[in-house]
């Protein structure tokens, strides 16, 4: 036999003598018998082999079967194995399971790779890449940004991690989100389909400006044209919870204003009759926004982190203009988004000033962005 081939058993004995923690034997042998004319060598296929302790044995096909050479430079077995071996952190057992599926598909079930194992330790061909602290932080923040789909937060991510591998995806997401918002602004206003009765009631409700008034509109027109805007106004007037509390338990102790979350600040809505300009002091909004002008605010510094968990050094004492090209024209275009009833839900997103600025920007846009 030694004149015709090398016995696999001899190789296994040599490997065992080295006392390695793990021995791996991979046999990609076709095993179609070229010696069928010899009486003692008329069988095809490899015989079944038992793996000594600490050994993993893989065959291109099951014992007794014949493997295909394929039409390319490598066999289907070798091609599939080379593709899966390079996957970081994948256990050897999973590598060969994935490879087996590909070979069976490529050979239409004619070839089933086979393995037997007595490994005592875990083994991977390529170790899983360990992320640095910065890479982990970038990944965590990127996952959050993808869920929020907010243009401001996408730009802040790019600014915080300009070398991250996610930056191209961030720019792609930004382009997609901005296109969606511009398309929403371009839609014909839904107010044209409102009945005279509904429009008259909503104008009266806005004039009163109370939570009870907006609830009256919602009760009268639960599927009304101004539904989104009414809900947004109501949420701004009652930011601390739902409209009604069915629970008989007493209300929780109010949180002091100084410790309240930024999006829970009390927001005073602007009078619809008041004309807002870039340089006029704002009389509506929360405590951070009131008495400031739009020009002052867009050139100021954020009072709260634009993205939850963003390191302080990336936003504290930083100018909002560092991340935004806030020309009057660009700001007016963004404000038009808030003025559209179809997309008024954008106003509910957390703002670095804690709330209220978007409400003023909407009325500024309605007045022609003076």
TrEMBL record:
Residues 245-255 have a biased composition (Pro residues). InterPro entries: Caspase-like_dom_sf (IPR029030), Caspase-related_regulators (IPR052039), Pept_C14_caspase (IPR011600), TPR-like_helical_dom_sf (IPR011990). Pfam families: Peptidase_C14 (PF00656). Residues 238-263 are annotated as: Disordered. Residues 20-123 form the Peptidase C14 caspase domain. PANTHER family: MUCOSA ASSOCIATED LYMPHOID TISSUE LYMPHOMA TRANSLOCATION PROTEIN 1/PARACASPASE (PTHR22576), MUCOSA-ASSOCIATED LYMPHOID TISSUE LYMPHOMA TRANSLOCATION PROTEIN 1 (PTHR22576:SF37). This is Caspase family protein. It comes from Ruegeria aquimaris.
């Amino acid at each position: 036999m030694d004149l015709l081939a090398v016995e696999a058993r001899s190789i296994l004995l040599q490997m065992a003598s080295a006392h390695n923690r793990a021995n791996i034997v991979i046999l990609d042998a076709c095993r179609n018998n070229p010696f069928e004319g010899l009486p003692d060598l008329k069988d095809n296929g490899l015989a079944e082999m038992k793996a000594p302790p600490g050994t993993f044995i893989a065959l291109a096909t099951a014992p007794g079967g014949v493997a295909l050479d394929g039409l390319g430079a490598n066999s289907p077995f070798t091609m599939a194995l080379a593709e899966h071996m390079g996957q970081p952190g994948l256990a050897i057992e999973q590598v060969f399971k994935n490879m087996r599926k590909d070979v069976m598909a490529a050979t239409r079930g004619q070839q089933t790779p086979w393995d037997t194992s007595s490994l005592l330790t875990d083994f991977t061909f390529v170790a899983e890449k360990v992320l640095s602290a910065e890479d982990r932080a970038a990944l965590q923040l990127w996952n959050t940004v993808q869920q929020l789909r907010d243009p401001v937060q996408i730009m802040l991510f790019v600014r915080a991690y300009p070398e991250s591998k996610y930056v191209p995806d961030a720019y792609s997401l930004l382009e997609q989100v901005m296109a969606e918002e511009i398309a929403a602004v371009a839609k014909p206003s839904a107010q044209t389909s409102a009945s005279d009765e509904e429009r008259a009631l909503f104008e009266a409700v806005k004039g009163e400006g109370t939570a009870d008034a907006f609830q009256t509109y919602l009760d009268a027109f639960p599927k009304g044209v101004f539904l989104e805007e009414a809900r947004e106004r109501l949420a701004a007037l009652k930011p601390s919870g739902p409209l009604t509390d069915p629970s008989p338990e007493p209300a929780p102790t109010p949180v002091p204003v100084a410790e309240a979350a930024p999006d829970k600040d009390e927001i005073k809505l602007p009078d619809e009759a008041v004309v807002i300009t870039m340089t006029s002091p704002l009389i509506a909004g929360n405590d951070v926004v009131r008495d400031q002008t739009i020009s002052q605010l867009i050139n100021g510094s954020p009072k709260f982190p634009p993205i939850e968990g963003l390191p302080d050094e990336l936003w504290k004492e930083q100018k909002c203009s560092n991340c935004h090209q806030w020309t009057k024209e660009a700001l007016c275009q963004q404000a038009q988004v808030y003025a559209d009833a179809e997309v008024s839900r954008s106003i509910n997103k957390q703002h670095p000033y804690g709330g209220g600025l978007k409400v003023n920007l909407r009325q500024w846009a309605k007045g022609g962005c003076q």
